[in-house]
Design goal:
VC0802-like, 7-stranded mixed sheet, 31% helix
Length: 362
């Protein structure tokens, strides 16, 4: 059976991989923000509810050319799944600002006919027994997605109502400005494909953002940090969100001693947000040269530290890891030297001095 996953629009490639990894999807394709997957088994609702970067999920009823939409709507067997009330909604990607070029091309070719919700809903009304429209709380919500010259029709089966914003760092009992957004942290955990009661290690746990998302999905987590203040803050945050299955240790990440299935971590960057080289208009030329030398030496030492960590992690890791690197290190070289295989990688821009490189390895 085919399903449509409507991505939220935040980091589309990351959202695509989150779905594929968590649901172990073998056959899929991407159409704008729609991931269309052919599933061999029934959709696992518990896993679907874990998704961070998916807005909603639909059972794919049909797809067709826009010019064939009217006839397809007329002939489709709506009565086979209709429940006491329905609503038809249309999401037209061609009307979105980032699709202006496609929209003009389509109209110039005279492919698109005007799409009317009222008119199309009429075909459903005349096809079902005891029809009733409910715009506020329909039992049968039918969604049409218009992308270029094609229409995709889905029956809504899940809407993501997870309140990630309420768990943002500044709203936690112990905040920290470098903490990942909860939505991103959740997606990184899902990239591993971890199941309930499997164990995840965050060897640089900080204030516990990754452990929090893992715990909310009923996985076990272990956290290391060498900073006692961070350890105490992490425990405070986890207790606040009623996370139960965790262990926190004040421990060096270069000396991993625990058994675990997966690892997810946002590596310490070491450089401040300005990467030392910005805002230096008042420095003389020799000072700028000294600063550049400082950065070069610092990055070299940082890479040396990362390499030691990665080699240690490689010895202990059972299955898979998701690691976040700063863009200014040669992470590909480091992973190769530590004998990791890169499965997927993604970029998240933070500011002009920092882009996060998310790498899924095994």
């Amino acid at each position: 059976m085919k399903h449509i996953f409507f991505l939220s629009g935040d980091y589309i490639s990351l959202g695509e991989e989150e779905i594929v990894s968590l649901l172990d999807i073998k056959n899929h394709r991407l159409a704008d923000r729609l991931l269309i997957a052919n599933l061999n088994e029934e959709l696992d609702e518990k896993l679907v509810k874990r998704l961070a970067l998916t807005k909603s999920v639909y059972r794919l009823l049909f797809e067709c050319k826009i010019n064939d939409l009217t006839e397809t709507m007329k002939s489709f067997g709506w009565n086979s799944f209709y429940k006491p009330s329905f609503c038809l909604r249309i999401y037209d990607f061609n009307d979105k600002p980032n699709n202006v070029k496609h929209n003009k091309q389509i109209k110039n070719k005279k492919i698109l006919n005007p799409v009317s919700e009222k008119k199309l809903a009429g075909y459903i009304w005349r096809s079902v027994q005891n029809p009733k429209v409910s715009l506020e709380n329909p039992k049968t919500l039918i969604q049409l997605f218009i992308i270029k010259d094609k229409a995709y029709c889905g029956l809504l089966i899940y809407t993501n109502k997870e309140d990630f914003e309420s768990r943002r760092s500044h709203l936690r009992p112990f905040p920290h400005p470098s903490s990942l957004h909860p939505k991103v942290a959740r997606a990184l955990v899902n990239l591993t494909g971890i199941k309930e009661n499997e164990t995840l290690l965050d060897p640089f746990c900080g204030t516990g953002g990754i452990m929090m998302e893992s715990g909310l999905m009923n996985s076990k987590s272990i956290g290391y940090d060498i900073d006692k203040l961070m350890i105490n803050g992490c425990i405070e945050n986890l207790k606040h969100y009623n996370i139960k299955k965790y262990r926190i240790k004040r421990q060096n990440a270069l000396k991993i001693s625990d058994k675990f299935d997966y690892a997810v971590t946002d590596l310490p960057y070491g450089l401040n947000s300005n990467v030392i080289l910005t805002n230096e208009n008042g420095f003389r030329k020799e000072n700028r040269i000294n600063k550049k030398t400082e950065v070069k030496n610092f990055v070299k030492n940082l890479e040396k530290f990362y390499l030691s960590f990665l080699k240690n992690l490689r010895k202990k890791l059972k299955k898979r890891a998701v690691i976040v690197f700063p863009s200014y290190v040669d992470y590909k070289k480091l992973l190769k030297m530590s004998r990791f295989k890169i499965e997927k990688e993604f970029s998240i821009y933070v500011h002009r001095s920092l882009t996060r490189k998310i790498v899924k390895v095994s």
